[in-house]
Amino acid sequence: MTSYLHSGSTDVDVDTVREALEHRDPFPGTAGFAGEVDGKLVRDVLGRVPLFLERDLDWETSNPLAPADWAFSPAELEEPELVSAGTVVDSDGPNRVWRLPDLAPEPEHDRALEAVDRAIRTAIDAVRSENADTAVAFSGGVDSALVAELLDAPLYVAGFPDSHDVEAARTAADAMGRELTVVELTHDDLERAVPQVARATGRTNAMDVQIALPLYLTGERAAADGFDRLAVGQGADELFGGYEKVVRLDHRVEAETVRGAVREQILTLADQLPRDVLALEAAGVDPVAPLLHDAVVEAALALPTELLVTDEARKYGFRRVAAEYLPETVVHREKKAVQYGSLAARELDRLARQAGYKRRMDDHVTKYVRSLLESSS
């Protein structure tokens, strides 16, 4: 029977997925996958590759593998619905077969850190094994800096001229002795890219579009410069305790422990990643996320609380590993979310207000995004 898989950072063998199904192994050593295998649709445990079904299929009469009923892009369906991570879809409908394991913390800190280091190098080696030209989306933070250092690939940053990300990337690149390509954003760039991002991702809400815009414009420039892939540092905050809400265990998390809160954040990736993957693919590059390789996820799940957060630092264990490769100033640099660090959120808000969508209006930026999408159709 034919199979048709899309994979994450590196190619995935169909037999690997078959074995993962047979043994219900959530971490078969891949960077993610989704598609058709032996008459079934599959999406990996983290949802690293987007997969969509037509909404409200009648499972008594519908064949979920009919070409009209599923796709890797929401734009190809009339009413797309994202398939849940870890799910297999067959004639009986969706069935969850892979779940994120609840691993016991490794009590030996040195051993735990060695496992993370080894896993990251395994992921980087897997990326290197693919015959493709790769650039790195570089914000100057420790996540993308570690990916950039280990891949030894060209660095790109997108942002408005006075943005935090452009300045941080410049100083970090200088500290690492690396050259940097700056993609200086303009209002024209945003107005042109908003409909393309919204159409590719199937999302028009302000937050998703603001996050995707810098990625899209970075990928577009890298593609124009001849690169096939754009590597990102995504996943580190979710895997290694990078969010303030994880440290504080505040109202934004349900868990009562740091490790439980980290697990919650990992589970949010299944909804976040399709936005980023689809935006980069629309820009003309394949996304590469080494820090979301199975080996890295498994090593991160075994970290004890003390290697996730401390009173002084988030991503404490990850930073200790990164310190073996990066200058200290880069290791300990804090970063802003991309929509704020690049000033994409601020400037899109400015454009919305200039177009008559005032802040007193409910969700005024989303209304502006939808107006740009409609006018570009």
From TrEMBL:
Residue ranges of the Asparagine synthetase domain? Answer: 118-252, 265-358
Pfam families to which the protein is assigned, alphabetical: Asn_synthase
**Keyword Nucleotide-binding on entry:** yes
InterPro entries, per database record: Asn_synthase (IPR001962), Asn_Synthetase (IPR050795), Rossmann-like_a/b/a_fold (IPR014729)
Q: Does the keyword ATP-binding apply?
A: yes
UniProt keyword annotations, A-Z: ATP-binding, Nucleotide-binding
Q: Which PANTHER family match?
A: ASPARAGINE SYNTHETASE, ASPARAGINE SYNTHETASE [GLUTAMINE-HYDROLYZING]
> By what name is this protein known?
Asparagine synthase-related protein
Q: Which organism does this record belong to? A: Natronoglomus mannanivorans
